[in-house]
Prior knowledge:
The complex is a heterodimer of chains A (729) and B (358).
Chain A: E1 13-16, H1 20-25, H2 28-53, H3 68-75, E2 83-85, H4 91-102, H5 115-129, H6 163-175, E3 182-187, H7 194-205, E4 210-216, E5 219-220, E6 223-224, H8 225-228, H9 237-241, E7 244-249, H10 253-268, E8 274-279, H11 300-307, H12 311-321, H13 327-348, E9 349-352, E10 355-358, E11 395-400, H14 401-415, E12 419-423, H15 440-443, E13 448-450, H16 455-468, E14 472-477, H17 487-500, E15 510-515, H18 530-533, E16 540-542, H19 547-559, E17 564-569, H20 570-573, E18 576-580, E19 594-597, E20 602-606, H21 609-621, E21 625-629, H22 640-650, E22 653-656, H23 666-677, E23 686-688, H24 699-705, H25 709-721
Parallel strand pairs in A: 1-7, 2-3, 3-4, 4-8, 7-8, 12-13, 12-14, 14-15, 15-17, 16-17, 20-21, 20-22, 22-23
Antiparallel strand pairs in A: 5-6, 9-10, 11-18, 19-21
Helix pairs in contact in A: 2-3, 2-4, 2-12, 2-13, 3-4, 3-10, 4-5, 5-13, 6-7, 6-16, 7-16, 14-19, 16-17, 21-25
Chain B: E1 2-4, E2 14-20, E3 27-28, E4 33-38, E5 43-47, E6 52-57, E7 64-66, E8 70-75, H1 78-86, H2 113-122, H3 140-150, H4 162-165, E9 170-172, H5 175-184, E10 187-195, H6 197-208, H7 218-233, E11 241-247, E12 250-256, H8 264-277, E13 281-282, E14 292-296, E15 313-327, E16 330-344
Parallel strand pairs in B: 9-13, 11-14, 14-15
Antiparallel strand pairs in B: 1-8, 2-4, 2-7, 3-6, 4-5, 6-8, 9-12, 10-16, 11-12, 15-16
Amino acid sequence: MPEYKDLKPLAPWREIKASRDDWAALEPELGTTMLTQMHLIRAFEEKVLELAAQGLVHGPAHSAIGQEGGAVGSAIAMRPGDQVNGSHRAHHQFLAKALCFVERDGIDYQEPFSGEVRHLAKRTLAEILGLAQGFCKGRGGSMHLRWPESGNLGTNAIVGGGVPIAAGAAWVHRHFNTGNVVYTFFGDGAVNIGSVLETMNIAAAWKLPICFFIENNGYAVSTTVAESTAETRLSSRGLAFGISSFKVDGMDPLAVYLASEEANAHMRTGHGPTIIEADVYRFFHQNGALPGSAFGYRTKQEEAQWRARDPLIQAAQHLLERQILGEGAIARLRDQALEMMNAIASELIETSEGKRRIVPSLWPDESFRDFGVRGNLEEFDHVRFEEEETFGGQLKPGVKFVDTIADVMDRRMATDPRIVVMGEDIHRLKGGTNGATRGLARKYPDRCLGTPICENAFTGLAGGMAADGRVRPVIEFMYPDFVWVAADQVFNQIGKARHMFGGGNAMPLVLRTKVAMGTGYGSQHSMDPAGIFATAPGWRIVAPSTPFDYVGLMNSALLCNDPVLVLEHVDLYSSTGSTPTEDLDFYIPLGKAKIVRTGSRMTILTYLSMVRTTVQLADEHGIDAEIIDLRSLDRASVDWQTIEASVRKTNNLLIVEQGAAGTSYGGWLADEAQRRLFDWLDQPIQRVHGADASPSISKVLEAAACARPGDITTALQEMLVAQGLRAVA
Amino acid sequence: MNIILPSLSAGMESGVIARWLKSVGDQVELGEPIAEVETDKTVVELTAEVSGRLKEILVEPGNSADVHQTIAVLHLQEAHAATNVSSVVPVAFAPPSIAKPSCAQSSRIMASPLARRIALENGIDLFGLTGSGPRGRIVKVDVQAASAALGSTSGGTAAEPISNRTANHAAILSAEPARSRGAAEPQFHYETEIEIDALLSLLDEINATRPKNRQISFSDLFVRASAVVMRLSGASLTNDIGVLDRTTDGFRRIIVANAADKTVGALSSEIHHLREHVDAAPARADDQVDVFTVYVSDIAGVSLTIFGADRAVTLSVGGRKRCPVVRGGNLVPASVVKCDLSVDHTTRRSIPRSLRWN
């Protein structure tokens, strides 16, 4: 018979309850502030539901009525520098944190609510209604509430999507030893999604001061916790990652407060993350003003039992028992909160021809639609731009492309302490799998972070770091296809954050990745991601084809206040070019293409490794082609001035890229080009790209799947023939 | 395959085979000149569009052939042609050469956007051009060749933008100010009536071969005639012809540049395009140039004389009617129009002799 030994989890897992003694010891001001906050939030949410029932809230209104105890109990334990984010159901958390910010010394329930409280409620309601005076100028609505000054990082409509971002903010606190913590609130439904579990792991590994606050309300819409997972005590998740975890009755704000105090003490002293699981109950359905029982997934009896444990009633009961306030005061508090919300609503809603409607002048102007999709590049106002041909300094020929990557990164990290590089294995193997981060880990150990294999979490983490503004993360995807693994963070979060939250918040993040077609890595490692990133308007894309351009474009990417994809290619890594011997501090404008070969019979647009290939083929066959290295690929940065001038001269346009047809880049470019240049074209815009399928591992099949020199040569000849000219040898 | 006589210039209907550069039995390579063809404007080399051996010559030197008529027969040598072409281009990408569809045979003219624009700017009628592009698409080189044949552009480059050429389109708000000025200042004024039955027959004949949306108008014929006469007479400082249109606001003049270089079809297209696309700017001082201007009223029976608008020679045609005319001592019915020619005193040249019809 084998011997058994019970293994103990690394971190403790405990349930916390508030005893009658704890309630007896509660400071009166803290107790009344809790009660007042909960009443304000309750009245606010009831008003939202009322307006939703009248059809005045466009989109869902996810109420947290019944769940106020968790939000208020934790927020009231925070200090002003602490931060929170939440999910689609977050009005209560947003308001609790914001109330703690505007009324730091507590709220006197006997006084009328302050102008700040009223203003907060009005701006929040306006945002939920989609109005210009809202926190995100009406862009975010109910599910994207952001007020950074108050510590509200922005709530999120993707389940679990905000969790890695909160960890990024926590990383910044740890990096600067502020002692501040971040609470990321999410529901029981989010516990089983990868973003959350990946983030728990990385946060524990890196000892980040983040509290994973699970509001366990029992239902993911209508699916029960027991249906979703075997271990229904969701705080158990911490055991797997070595995270100190607490389970608490979320209907008791004091219990939550006590749990938060313990968690905060743990996190502020550098012991890493915590989990608080608060059992709560939403009195209504997922959204709207009907109870869940109306939809048949739970019973009226169950709802009645939970309603009897209403956190507002429980808190009031304790305060009554201690004779801190009387029933009349509680009734007045309730009335005052309702009155305030009625008054606020009447300023936003009017009656016209017998119908309630939003006061028309309060809507955002339609011209605001695309404002702030990306920044205005004002950060480039006074920088020095250089081009290789006109560079005044000393150039050193024969420099390997991949060495330039490490050199410019080293230079920037030396001059800019905000830069942090992250990725898989980038701190080992002499600078990652290709040597692009050579030497950085040794020189900047606290800013060169080898991550676990979790693209979604570490990308989101970087997004949170970038949104904070105090650091500028540079993340590396070992292969571009991993963007699909991190797609939520790349596209839904980082790519949309600026626009979604109102257009004013920067997202200075750089994503490096290398196109690896030709290395035999097969279907899942051989994408050119330019076409995919070009669909996301918040992202900028640069594709340097020479070491010199890499220096200038990487510097620009690092300076830019928007997320920038810096594309590399394995074929270029071993190529050589000239780089400055000393000066690695110049920029190349985002949005400036480069004519690398002049000609008159056709214009060829290409980028990355295809630039060199296309130039060589045109030379070899003596084809009178003008070749433009696009360099900047995103829609906002394509250099139409250069392209249009060239096509007006040559009257023929060919777009050359290497990758598969489906994810290819040139389609949108051809579409836009024909719109701009139709009357100047002597034949349809032609394209060279790879095959339908992703490249296979077999060397022969891989070569056939990518655009090859022969494909380009054929296209060059076709371009001539279609002009009525003779093909050349 | 048959070698057909292509349309080598706009409006070309036939050509004379000046000489054959190859004899029967000779090997002909793709792109090699095989004959010289004389058009009414110039002599053009005809090049082989495919390699082969010249089998038969059907039109002897000095004889005329119609456009699209077979003038010779080429014996294709497939193997030779294939190796010849595929060494540089896969066969599938070889220039379209066999039985190139002529635009004249289809109502839809296949031309690249660029070719269309250059044609418009240079007054080239795409109708009748043979395309060198895929599926017979007319491309830049075809229009440039046609343009060179017409001698309307120099160096084969695209003409200057249309906006520059039409900068002096002028809005003439009313005929009345011109009339009052004409009354106060000396003007020469000629008036006659002309028979137009033959002209109308010609118009019907031309339009019978043209697509419905590209019909030549009665007015177009007068523009073309005026342009040719002005060119021949050397009377005008420019080769431009003004066309006066009556609009709701009065009269508007558009200018057709180098009108004498253009076929009636090209003129018609251009006038049509200008009417659609050019907003006449108010008249400026530099509009005061000698431009022979034509005004054709399409209202039957009503004529209008335009007096010396813009200090130019103005031909007003109108009052179209059926009436008896004396012919050989007999009265016969005929269609006539009234023509008024008014000449401003500041016109810098005398009225050309050829414009005097009495």
